[in-house]
Amino acid sequence: MLLKIAWRNVWRSRRRSGVLVASIAFGIWAGLVEMAIMNGMAVQQVNAAVRTRLSHLQVHAPGFRSHEDVGLFIPAGDTVLAAVRHEPGVEAAAGRAVIEAMAASATTARGVRVLGVDPAAERRVTDVATRLVDGTWFGTPRRNAAVIGERLARRLGLRTGQKFVLTAQAGDGSVGAGAFRIVGLYRTASSNFDETTVFVRRDDLARVFALGTRLHEIAVRVRGMDEIAPVAAELRGRWPDLDVATWQALAPEVALTRDWTTEMNEIFLFVILVALIFGTTNTMLMGVLERTREFGVLIALGMRPARLFGMVLLETILLSLVGGLAGAVLAATSVAALGHAGIDLSLFSGGLAALGMDRVVYPLLPGSGYPAVVALVALSAVVASLYPGWKAVRLDPVTAMRTYQ
Amino acid sequence: MPVIQTDQLTRVYEDHNVPVTAVDHVSLSIEAGEFTVVVGPSGSGKTTLLNLLGGLDRPTSGRLAVGGEDLSTLDGSRRVEFRLHHIGFVFQAYNLIPVLSAQENVEFILLLQGRPRAERERRARELLAEVGLADLRGRRPDEMSGGQQQRVAVARALASLPSYVLADEPTANLDSASASGLLDVMERLNRERGMTFVFSTHDARVVERARRVVTLQDGRVVSDEARG
Questions:
Q1: Residues A72 and A61 sit within 8 Å (Cβ to Cβ)
Q2: What single string gives the DSSP state of each residue in A70-121?
Q3: pTM for this structure?
Q4: What is the complex's ipTM, to 2 decimals?
Q5: Hey, are the CB atoms on A294 and B91 less than 8 Å from each other?
Q6: Domain spans of chain B?
Q7: What residues of B are in contact with residue A298 (Cβ under 8 Å)?
Q8: Shortest Cα distance, chain A CAs vs residue B110, angstroms
Q9: Do B80 and A302 touch (CB under 8 A)?
């Protein structure tokens, strides 16, 4: 019955309650959609980094990640690669020879990172092969083919079919150089990656730069994000002398952005909830003051203070929940629609690409996010009811019943 | 044993730092089944006396015993409990809960007492029938006349099976017919159930029906007249 009374009391002042419910619904809708956009951007950034350049895990010789010294190769690299491919939880693995080089065209030169890859194996750990804007992913049997970023080609003033020269320290300590022909141009979400990364066949790189069968890097794709930590632990256990790094360790800036996004979302939500608390407190306080006489009567009739407080609390929670649920339903609908269609942020594509993000953002929020926010709204209602409830229970019945209503 | 026993009951207010004695050494004994009216001019202390008898206010000095229990010494929460279980109230402005129907208003007191739902519903039905509102059980206060609302208030006051009912100017807002009907109901409840009623009123129609009239002036009892 108390629930019934509370529910009816909520709608006694329909306009005031309606305004508050609409405010809460709008605030929650805005908060959830904003969280979904930020979360979608973070997830896309992580996915872009993992799928395009990092894969889930990488194996190196100790020290290679900090120095990228051509002499720091994985001992018996191909044997390790074969073994890694058979590890439980591993979906695919690809070996890479890696050198830092200077790429020069007839007009200019730029520093690049050259990845000598097995094109077929590489397709299974990263998706650069699917991001070609021109040419093919090593679709030619000719030697010294290269797939480079569209941005790098533009910087070098080159097109598909044209040659450029890679110069770098070779595996034997000498300086090696070789001409490579562009067979494909790719474009990923990361402008930095596109400007600095060159893919060539591992055999060609080994021949030109005297690398032999050396592998500097094994990129590993696991079956799911949950498998990353266990597979990393397994690899570390099996090859304790090698450096096994997860994508978070390989790209701490991406992990940091993801964590930062989560924290920003929490702060944003907190600000919204605080605003809701003030608005709700104000509305409930007006309700209590308007019903002073009624509360006086209830106290006179024998309603215990705790029960009276509970009634104010219940009314506040009901009011907030109606708004919170409405906001959550609207947000779920909006996020589903926007998550399907995407939000085109082409206007900011330059900045987004610098951060490794796609120009189209797909808002995404885990299903558990909605009930969690509604629960937080209910919790904020509890806080919002404290002052009005306290005012109600402190009423003196004789004075309260004299109040004009 | 009297239902209500006051001994030198006194209530002094501070009004702009000036002490005002609203009830001045009142000693009364009200027996079970009485139909008593407290009369007096405005400011004579009627409402203050009823507030004291109802445990809504605390005396400055003196003693108030209800059924042998000293109400003046109870703390706030125990007075709330005491009111809930021992005292019925009928207010001048009816003061029903506007969002509840007549039936629910009567049930509400029983809910506060923690009575089971079936008992609440049965008792409320019976009481509303007793005050002549069996057909209006589902109506909310704003769908009833003043007289009907006051009858609901009487049913609510009786629902908790109180030791006595305090009625502060219960007919002040009613027309003659409604006031007469209400007083008929209260008289009948007094006669048939032996319920003790204590009124404060200006209304001659109430005074006519009283079997005891206590007159206050400046907070003091100036006459206490029993009628046949």
A1: yes
A2: TT-PPTTHHHHHHHHHTSTTEEEEEEEEEEEEEEE-SS-EEEEEEEEE-HHH
A3: 0.76
A4: 0.90
A5: no
A6: 4-226
A7: 97
A8: 11
A9: yes
